[in-house]
Amino acid sequence: MNKASTFIWLSIIFIFLLPTSAGRFFIDMAGGIIFIIFLASILISGVTWLSWRKIKANIKSCGNCGANYFSESTLCPICGSNQKLDKDSSDFNIPASSATIDISAEETD
Ligand SMILES: [Zn+2]
């Protein structure tokens, strides 16, 4: 039996079952399955989004070699240099006062 004839037989069975309680049961079941698939897709997308957020939070960019790596440790697996957190490296940043460009307001009238 090929796929086309299987489909035809299923449609014939479905048409005969449709007015009966068995047909209603199948329709209810199909509706339930669609509802479950719908809920599952929402759940899966939610879990995927949360895990992606967690993965993104754990992805670190090496300041020494520029490699992106997924690790809980602060050591870069590519070059082995110690990666400090952003808040720790703020001591080495240029002070904001010297970095900002002074914009002098000019009266243009
Ligand atoms: Zn590195």
Q: How would you describe what is shown here?
A:
With 109 residues, the protein is mainly α. It folds into 2 domains: 60 residues; 32 residues, no CATH class. Helices cover 52% and strands 6% of the residues. It is built from 3 helices and 2 strands, in the order H-H-E-E-H. The chain has a two-stranded antiparallel ribbon with strand order 1-2. Helix 1 crosses helix 2. The protein is elongated and about 80 Å long. About 5% of the residues have low confidence. It binds zinc ion. Zinc ion binds next to loops.
Highlighted features:
mainly alpha, two-stranded antiparallel sheet, 3 helices, elongated, binds zinc ion
What kind of sheet is the major sheet?
A: 2 strands, antiparallel
**Distance N terminus to C terminus?**
89 Å
* Molecular shape: elongated
Q: Tell me the Rg in angstroms.
A: 31 Å
The structural domain count equals: 2
Class from helix and strand fractions:
mainly alpha
The overall pLDDT average reads 80
What series of H and E elements makes up the topology?
HHEEH
Spatially, the strands of the biggest sheet line up as: 1-2
Measured by DSSP, the beta-strand proportion falls in 5-15%
Q: Enumerate how many helices there are, as a single number.
A: 3
Fraction of residues in helix? 40-55%
Which consecutive residue ranges, at least 5 long each, have pLDDT under 50? 87-91
Number of strands: 2
